Amino acid sequence: VVCHAVGLCKTPSGADMCHLFPLPPSKHHAPKTLAEHVETLRRRTVDVAKKHGLAALMKSNEPGAPPKFCDWPVLETICTDYEHFENHLPAFDGDGDKFSTVAEARGSSWRGKDCNDSNTAVYPGRLPIDGDAIADSNCNGIFGVELATSTRYEDLWCNGTERRGVVLIGDSVGAHFHVPPEWLNVTELNEEVFRDIAFIIANEMDWPQLSLTTGHLNSSKWKDVVQGPMDSLYQHFLELNRCNHRDYQNLGINGGTAQTTAEHVVSTLARNGGTDFPIFGLMELVGNDVCSPEPGFNHMTPPEVYYASQLESLRYLDDHLPDGSRLVLAGLVDGRFLYNNMHSRIHPIGALHDDVTYADIYNYLNCLGVSPCWGWLNLNETVRNLTTEHAYQLNAQLERIVANETFKNIELMYTMFNIVQAAEVLEKKGGHAWQLVEPVDGFHANQLGNAISAGLLWDTIRQVKPHWIPEENPHNQDIINKFGDQGGY
Asked: Which of 3, 136, 188, 425 could form a disulfide with 143, with the two C-beta atoms 3.0–4.6 Å apart?
């Protein structure tokens, strides 16, 4: 009813209303229609909003219409700048170099923090200007001259080391989508769990700052709504070379597919072949080319379209990235893992009475037409198997690209996100496979899943492409002693 009341869900005329719980029986009158339920909820919401001085929540152009998203007081500022980040670029970018001093809204949570937002020539990842003798031009916090030797610190401690930025091009898995389960559990509702709601919404419910590719902060900063260790590819590269500080970009897009990535995402990368360091990149589209709220299989990306779209993205990157860049192409997961490990468990929304399982949630979302993946989050085993079969056909296209296509500036490697392997790692430590999955949507990897996946991917690179792992910078401790946290994040 709530979903219908806010206008997110629709029920075709004559169809039964989707519900998780049995509708309450009545001895005195027939059960309410969906429209009556919605109107009752709307009236109660208006009354509550007025009682607490939140009438603005219920603004709308039409009588009885749901509240406008952008009229909610906490979201007004976000919506004012929405036109800037709907194209997946920072909402607050003073000089237009695609980097920001503000964390949220595609800012420094997503891309290294700009250290001069009024100068387009200053940004993370660029080659230092005049050795950064006077000012920091690449925002890694290393600049100035050692007086004893008259040597610039960039030359002294960074020259001769392998430097590269870390880039994620992908979907909500790479962006690290996470809805706090505390928001759905009435026993855990308190002021603290909503403290950062504006920040969370402005980041599109994504947590790139804690993700497996570009994670750079500790989850304890948001301990009331996210728990678990943080490990990331960026963190590994930074530990090997402090000169890589702040050189990361997360271009993960909720709902991203091979086609939308080629058409709208790769062009938002801030990298110049002539002025910047090469990158290590992860290109992951692990589900949306087979996943959709729409029932059936016709919406799945055909293999030939997938191949062409991925190749289009790679050609663009090859034309714009510095020579020596490296890119991991990650295949689609076997999403049957989700239903197999989650279906009989209790969902947070049913935690109070232990009466709603993930199978109930999956079926409910499919009924509403809002499931993140009709195919894998389906009670029908045949449907789940056919979805995986199509995913494997798409993975074969990535393998074809790696085997047959040539590029001038990028070197490729293919791998597959192996969630089963991550589960095995956890089980050896006494854990369980379900502990890797986001509790609210039952679909994405959670914080623990991200951390374990980062470690596994790093180990895979070491084994398959050992020359991709740089030597440790022998001056890391010198950099820390002189520049501390190098300006932080």
From this structure: 136
